[in-house]
UniProtKB/TrEMBL annotation:
Residues 1-19 form the signal peptide. PANTHER family: CHAPERONE PROTEIN SKP. GO terms for biological process: protein stabilization. Residues 34-75 form a coiled coil. It comes from Kaistella treverensis. The keyword Cell inner membrane does not apply. Belongs to the Skp family. One of its GO terms (cellular component) is cytosol. One of its GO terms (molecular function) is unfolded protein binding. The keyword Nucleus does not apply. Keywords: Coiled coil, Signal. This is Periplasmic chaperone for outer membrane proteins Skp.
Length: 180
């Protein structure tokens, strides 16, 4: 029964697709060709490096305090031992919290990356929409999103047309036109 439903779905999809003109773009290629995106990526990489250095500094401090505690454990008594152990434990918690806040599932890196890519995604989406309307494309696939394209005739690859449209409308091009 499942195979029958799948067969009907594929048949219906084939009929729908055959009536549509299909185009393919590579958004990763486009992003890598946009100078503004490269600048934003460099800023993100710099921020990540700063966060990693900050965490590494805390980790080094933690390692030193933990080693000192282990070396002096026999000399410490009662409250001194508890106080030093608490310092080490608090620093460990601080490091773990910082890593989670910066690089965790709901971390700052995701927000920063989202804020970084959102404007470019919007620009690319608008350019793809313009190119697809101009070329009457019914379906546009993105090669960079793990879609297996085994063969693609160059006439169906609209990546360069989208990139040309984006670069034509870029702030650098507008500044060049004003200078002329």
């Amino acid at each position: 029964m499942k195979k029958f439903k799948l067969l009907i779905f594929l048949f219906a999809f084939t009929l729908t697709v055959s009536a549509q003109k299909i185009g393919v773009v590579d958004t990763n290629y486009i992003l890598n060709k946009l100078p503004q995106y490269k600048d934003a990526e460099a800023r993100l990489t710099e921020q990540i490096t700063n966060w990693q250095n900050e965490i590494q500094t805390l980790q080094t401090e933690f390692d030193k305090k933990k080693e000192a505690l282990e070396n002096e454990r026999v000399l410490l008594v009662g409250d001194q031992l508890k106080l030093r152990q608490k310092e080490v434990d608090d620093l460990d918690k601080k490091i773990k919290t910082m890593i989670n806040n910066r690089f965790g599932a709901m971390g700052e890196i995701n927000n920063v990356r989202s804020n970084l890519t959102k404007p470019f995604q919007d620009q690319i989406w608008n350019a793809i929409r313009t190119v697809s309307e101009k070329n009457t494309l019914g379906i546009v696939l993105d090669k960079s999103n793990n879609i297996s394209v085994i063969f693609l005739d160059k006439k169906y690859d609209y990546t360069d047309k989208v990139l040309d449209l984006l670069l034509k409308n870029s702030p650098e091009k507008a500044a060049e036109k004003k200078k002329k």
